[in-house]
């Protein structure tokens, strides 16, 4: 293999492939990137047996060929280069990365031990706007659990039917759902690892095509195609959360409420629980701890229904308000230890609902 | 005490006082800030028995008085406020921080347990430009040791005599010196904790006045005055480093060399040691490790004298080049395990010299 490529384009492609592969590898060879140079350009592919990724990059192949090299050192080297063009050429048992005055030589890894680039992409089952998908995933994938103790909570349920894509994520203590428009050709209902979807939200652009295959889910945009094994173990469903006993509804500016919650949060105890008291035309937030003292703040709100007044963990309430920054939100409050339902009063194309559990007030 | 102040100005003053106090307190009351309101405005003071800080802030005192309150909660509360004006008023055993719609109440601490604001500033022994001082301190204070095992290496020697301020810092493995112009009235030679000088470099502006008192060192600018106990245990001196056997001198662009060192650093082993080979009109940097492979880069240099070719720890060599970014540097290389001397070919008012120890080349 011997090729010349634009340094920045190749650095971007390599970085994107490296980020989309899972960060931990059980076998060293799975940390490799397959480079396949043809007259059409360069294809980069990785496969760690759970995730598979492939993308292409323009390149002039002087000699065609395929090599497997360590992904991270290649990505770091390309990112650090300043010359506009770079040459990748096999020299003995090494892939040399050459620019004028410098030579970086990566060891070739054994392709026989690598699972290969993975199956080619199936026809897409749906298309969705990347910006809308990223907006939904930032909240829903961010609400999934980070630890692996209960695998189903590390996934996002992606449910497509006709023209609506619905997402659900939960870590058991709170749940986020989102619905957004899509153009679908076949229904699907899969539980996809949230970690990959979080990366996808940062990297995807334009139109994202969704692909399904037995026990696998894929997404593609531009020349990038990434797929992953899906999770099983039951489906997350917002139907599991009781929402029928809402007796108090607030309409309030999400940013103003979040700013007040942050201030009162400076005066909560280690658990970070603040009390919310619903009054006429306003709510009162309060907190107290031994070190800082005590604090109370009033925030204007449109109050209807009863005066049910829950307490919340500061961090969870801020997470629930974050998707709605700059918007007016509705808080549907239920009595007892039932979830408060946060949604935009005037949602756009991406309709997010956040369910946050109240806490027992400090000292009760 | 009862006063009204501009929120942003009071938040800045409180944050500055809190940052200049040491981050660890042996007694809870030392985490307090003394607020002293008079017809002239507000004075803020802290004293943790090692450091003392005081500064003033414009305020309208409705009732004069002095209180001691926890510094960090006060600083965090003021920083989080959005209203342009804030009222601080004693209410019972609390200091209430009031803005329309909100009240934050900090506990009053026992002033009898606090050492007080500290002695007033003595007459300055020197004046120095804050920007020049900060430039010198960023390198010299940054080179001092972070751990307390040998206290003298956690200090910066500040030596003033006539019109020149000389600074020396070392962690035993490398040493940085700087000299810069000052206007002095009395000679001084003190070892000042580097941690405080690092904060001073970030906060001071305009002209910095230096103050000495028995076993203490102080600095003041604007209304801010900070002082600290000095360290003892001997003086750091560049005279301890042998520099007479320089046989190879390089002149090279500091930024180009640092960029190449960073690239080759991707190919060094865990210890991060790269080899530098001096040739005609250029140097060659090389590194190798099992994971990434091997790398070589040539950088143009003006070489004079011999061809002595040391190896360096990547991190230390980058630290030695950082003060000279954008400038041409001279590297004075000595044979054997003797320091390489890095300095600007054309230094400005602030003249920095960095002494970096070579390492044994990998596998030798």
From TrEMBL, chains A, B:
Residues 247-360 form the DNA polymerase III beta sliding clamp C-terminal domain. It comes from the Bacteria. The keyword Transferase applies. SMART domains: POL3Bc. One of its GO terms (molecular function) is DNA-directed DNA polymerase activity. SUPFAM superfamilies: DNA clamp. Residues 132-235 form the DNA polymerase III beta sliding clamp central domain. One of its GO terms (biological process) is DNA strand elongation involved in DNA replication. Keywords: Cytoplasm, DNA replication, DNA-binding, DNA-directed DNA polymerase, Nucleotidyltransferase, Transferase. CDD domains: beta_clamp. Residues 1-112 form the DNA polymerase III beta sliding clamp N-terminal domain. It holds the Pfam family DNA_pol3_beta_2. NCBIfam families: dnan. Belongs to the beta sliding clamp family. This is DNA polymerase III subunit beta. It comes from Amycolatopsis antarctica. The gene is dnaN.
């Amino acid at each position: 293999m011997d090729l010349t490529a634009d340094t920045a384009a190749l650095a971007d492609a390599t970085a994107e492939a490296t980020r989309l592969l899972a960060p931990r590898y059980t076998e060293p060879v799975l940390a490799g990137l397959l480079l396949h140079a043809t007259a059409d350009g360069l294809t980069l592919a990785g496969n760690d047996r759970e995730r598979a990724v492939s993308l292409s990059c323009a390149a002039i192949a002087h000699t065609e060929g395929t090599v497997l090299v360590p992904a991270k050192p290649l990505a770091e080297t390309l990112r650090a280069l300043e010359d506009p063009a770079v040459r990748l050429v096999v020299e003995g048992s090494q892939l040399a990365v050459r620019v004028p005055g410098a030579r970086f030589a990566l060891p070739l890894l054994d392709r026989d031990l690598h699972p290969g680039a993975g199956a080619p992409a199936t026809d897409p089952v749906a298309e969705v706007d990347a910006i809308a998908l990223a907006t939904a995933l930032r909240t829903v994938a961010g609400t999934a659990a980070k630890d692996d103790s209960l695998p189903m909570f590390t996934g996002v349920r992606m449910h497509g039917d006709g023209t609506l894509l619905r997402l659900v994520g939960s870590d058991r203590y709170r749940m986020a759902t989102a619905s957004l428009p899509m153009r679908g050709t076949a229904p699907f209902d899969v539980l996809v690892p949230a970690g990959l979807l979080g990366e996808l939200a940062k990297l995807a652009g334009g139109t994202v095509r969704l692909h399904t295959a037995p026990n696998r889910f894929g997404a593609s945009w531009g020349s990038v195609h990434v797929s992953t094994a899906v999770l099983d173990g039951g489906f997350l469903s917002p139907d599991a959360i009781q929402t029928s006993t809402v007796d108090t509804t607030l309409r309030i500016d999400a940013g103003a409420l979040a700013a007040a919650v942050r201030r009162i949060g400076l005066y909560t105890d280690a658990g970070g629980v603040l009390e919310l008291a619903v009054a006429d035309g306003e709510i009162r937030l309060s907190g107290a701890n031994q070190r800082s003292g005590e604090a109370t703040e009033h925030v204007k709100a449109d109050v209807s229904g009863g005066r049910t007044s829950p307490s919340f963990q500061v961090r969870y309430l801020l997470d629930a308000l974050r998707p709605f920054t700059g918007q007016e939100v509705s808080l549907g409050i239920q009595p007892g230890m039932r979830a408060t339902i946060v949604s935009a009063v005037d949602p756009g194309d991406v309709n997010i609902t956040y369910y946050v559990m109240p806490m027992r007030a400090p000292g009760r």
